[in-house]
Amino acid sequence: YLRLEGDFVRLAPALRAEQFDATISTSALEHFGLGTYGKHDGVLDPDYDVKAVAAIWRLLKPGGLFHVTLPYGCRFYVNNPHWRVYDRVALQERIIRDFTVVEKVFFKSADCRVPDDGGRPVPLVREEDADAFEPGDHPHLTIYLCLQKT
Predict the structure, then answer these.
(1) Residue 72 in contact with residue 133, Cβ under 8 Å?
(2) Tell me: the pLDDT tens digits for 109-132?
(3) For residue 127, how many other CB atoms are within 10 A of its CB?
């Protein structure tokens, strides 16, 4: 299996389009372009998350899946230089865009290991409650999305 690690925005143009069945971004995209890791980031761009998602879209085969986790709350919030917290509108405009949502689960980050009878994480927070969650609360609220390229 081909595995890539690195900056999708910089790597994607050199790669053949539509070659991946799936991509995964776990607790990463919210940091892109904000200087979270200082000199190691290399790019300061408030829209680098959007550019990374566009690069991921290009690399996925039709029907390919993008699995992503992000901080979620009642409003879009940028805590520069650390992270973004996405709300419903920011998710649609910055992340989901042309993808189709296959699955959506909200959970408190510290509670994500509680299994149901099938062994899957229990969605510990209902969507309507997630929309009221204030950014900065701890444990913070996380959204897991399974998005499909259509």
Answers:
(1) yes
(2) 765 555 566 666 555 788 998 998
(3) 13
Distance CA 109, CA 106 (A): 9
- Phi/psi for 135 (5° steps) reads -55, 140
Note whether 87 and 136 are within 8 A (CB): no
Please say if the pLDDT value at position 139 is more than 80.
no
Q: Rounded to whole angstroms, how far apart are CA atoms 93 and 16?
A: 26
Instruction: Assign 15 to helix, strand or coil.
Output: coil
Contact of 67 with 101, CB cutoff 8 Å: no
Between the CA atoms of 123, 108, 66 and 104, what dihedral angle is there, to the nearest 10 degrees? 30
> pTM here?
0.86
